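TOPIC: backbone geometry
CONTENTS: sequence, structure tokens:
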Amino acid sequence: MIRQITSDLPQFKSLAFREGLNVVLADTSPGATERQTRNGAGKSSLVELIHFLLGAKGDKASSFRTSKLVDATFRMTFDLGGSLVDVRRSGKKPARLQVQGDTTRWPIQPVDGAISNENWKAVLGALMFGLGVEEERAGPTPGFRSLFSYFARRQSTGGFGTPAKWGEVQQPGDQQVAVTYLLGLDWTIPAKWQAVRERERSLREVKKAAGEGAFGAVIGKAADLRAELTVSEERLRKLQQSVNSFQVHEQYHELEKEASKLTARLSELADENTLDREYLASLQTTVQSEAVPSPNDLQAVYAQAGLLLPAAIVRRFDEVERFHDSVVQNRRSYLAAERIAVEGRIAQRDDEKARLDARRAEIMRILHTHKALEHFVQLQAETSRLAAATEGLRQRYNSAEVLESGKIMMDQERARLFERLKQDYREQSEVYRRAVIVFEELSSSLYEQAGHLTISETANGPEFAVKIHGQASKGIQNMQIFCFDFTLARLCAERGKGPGFLVHDSHLFDGVDERQVANALVVGARTAKELGFQYIVTMNSDAVPSVFPEGFDFAAHVVEPRLTDATEDGGLFGVRFA
């Protein structure tokens, strides 16, 4: 329970609380508008202050960061984990709080009497609700701030709209997890539902992007990508085989140069042989075409002309013939020698060609079975590039499959969770029954026709609905919240969980019939006394019922000092601020 709330602000109205019902009353000045009354006295600000001291955000939007409050330190003394604790916090340094008290049971110890706001929330979650430190910091799991908000609803967050939600910004997953936890049911099932919703949201975003062309061309269709992936994987397999069987020769380039020189030399030898063979053919033709002319042929020519050669001339012919024979023989001897020389050169070149060709063949075999180091590096680089491309295709294929089959998978997961939820409600039927009965008893204390709390299994997780006859009115709706909050407070108290107090702002009683307001205060006081916890209510004096059930002393529950909007310093903080 809360013992005291105070501040070093000079005009702050320190409030001391006791067990059971505590009514913080604000007197309204004659002629004051509703807005002036609500803003001036600070009733709602009391709820905000309790939240501020119990881990709420202290960002620039916080009232405690305004110029009139930022330098002030606020203090609350309350029971935590069976010990009295004193906590202080200021708007100037909202990230760290000063704490005093027995901290031996705390999961995180303060350092020199100080603790960060994040660690403070973890401590509060552990000691008030039995949360693990890691649970408090991970999601989707029950979080202290979400659970505590059902014990001190705030008008600023829209806390008086729907019974099962503490605010307008609360997401379905957080609401389902928190209420399920407070009721004592298995909260891990709605937590998994929230995970499904998050995956579905991501899937919708990807599908939308694909439909708009942002990713459609990148991802593609699963069938097309499957074919591309198969081809790419086969190419990669062959490249990897080549890399594994690759042999590097240190003198690869020297062998390449030698092979090139051998090829050039073989070409030269072939050209030279061609020229010599042509020359040899011309020599043979020359030998065959050269014939020695006969002197008788010359005499026959003269005879035909009617001339007779003298004997002396005939003798000269014989001499010439012998000379000519000598010349022809010498010529033939030369040609024969030249032919032999040419044939020798050709044979010599053929021998060299055979030797060089054998060497070149040997080099080519080496070059065929071995490669240069840079070739190996290039092959490795190509293998890496193709491996990356293949992996990219694989991821695109997987993404395409998820897109095409995601809805089916999510529907299957929802169906599985739906069955788990029904099974949990069957197995924890006593917990379910207790929640329904507590709500029914509370509502029957306010109205002749009792209301109902229904907990339904739906395809989107557990659904919590509250029904009271005449719920179309704002007053009836607020009493639904009253009964729902007290149901959670009672169930938690019976399990030894909760902060030990419940706070209701005056907004809860807006539009509520005076008789129901009186009954609600009586029920609240009786329930708090029965369970040993504290019920704090803020009210305007003009909203206090004129008649209460016999035996109920309203004045005995009013907290002093009373607040007022009649003067500038009559409110909780003693100053007015925006």
